[in-house]
């Protein structure tokens, strides 16, 4: 939620026309598109294949319309196919019943196609099916990602309120940062924002270090995945120099951040250090700061967080060529920081409604011809 435009931009950059809806992007593609989307999309939660969408106000209707879908094109005879569901503002509100009916309808279709009378073994590749009802429209899909796309495979350790990798990537992509500018995260926690900045700066595919459930599907040839992995190697800019720093007040988090960066194979590219935000100084110019500081939502933390926002405002006030981007749910952030933002953008950090406060620095002078 809140990142639809960014995901759509990424999908179009991969070469696919798409439609933007609330909370999702829809587009047409082949097996290669499934593999490339999983490998390359930095800000999407997961890739799902839309098998059918139809109106269903009775269980009979849900059963018959599900049964009429071409399940044999997707599910081999030994497929493991659990069904999950959700229902919002629909006559069919019992999710467990909807799941059972969709499962039964798929089994009936498969029995007739595979000429089978008994049970299906379900000991083969996994196809996670979802029936999602919204205002009596049923959308039936298969999950092609497996673990959510935020699970990049590098997070060995984390703090108590970790930022999702997909949101961290979005925070970087919503700035004016380019790989030749210095980049600093003064609240780096487990290092997610600096690591995502390296992946973006060197154009490394976010899925390069993990596997996807659709890699086990018989109708996506192995050579498709090979082709996509070769593309990620060809497009990566491993020799792009970067100046990326992550600091945190907690030395344990700094250690975890370093471990995560090495797990991602990027340990040499980020400099992590223990530091309070008020001690930050730099002589560099035209850099970018991206921070996800504590929000002060817990009892007893509020005053300490307000004080920290004040100190941050004073510390950053002299960085007039730097652009500063801060994510927080604290609606009084600008008051304590001491400066109104150039622009604000509403984003959700999990279920917490936050604002992304953006302070744009001076532009570098144009080089003379």
Secondary-structure blueprint:
Blueprint: H1 4-13, E1 18-21, E2 24-27, H2 31-40, E3 48-55, H3 59-67, E4 83-88, H4 95-114, E5 128-134, E6 137-143, H5 165-173, E7 183-185, H6 192-201, H7 222-235, E8 244-248, H8 251-263, E9 270-274, E10 288-291, H9 302-316, E11 323-328, H10 333-337, E12 343-349, E13 352-359
Parallel strand pairs: 4-5, 7-8, 7-10, 8-9, 10-11
Antiparallel strand pairs: 1-2, 3-6, 5-6, 11-13, 12-13
Helix pairs in contact: 2-7, 3-4, 5-6
Keywords: Methyltransferase, RNA-binding, Transferase
Pfam families: RlmL_1st (PF22020), THUMP (PF02926), UPF0020 (PF01170)
Protein name: Class I SAM-dependent RNA methyltransferase
Description:
This protein has 369 residues and is α/β, with parallel strands linked by helices. It contains 10 helices and 13 strands. It has helices at 4-13, 31-40, 59-67, 95-114, 165-173, 192-201, 222-235, 251-263, 302-316, 333-337; strands spanning 18-21, 24-27, 48-55, 83-88, 128-134, 137-143, 183-185, 244-248, 270-274, 288-291, 323-328, 343-349, 352-359. The strands form 3 sheets. It has a 7-stranded mixed sheet, covered by helices on one side. Strand 8 (244-248), helix 8 (251-263) and strand 9 form a beta-alpha-beta unit. Helix 2 (31-40) crosses helix 7, helix 3 (59-67) packs parallel to helix 4 (95-114) and helix 5 packs across helix 6. The protein starts with a helix and ends in a 10-residue tail after the last strand.
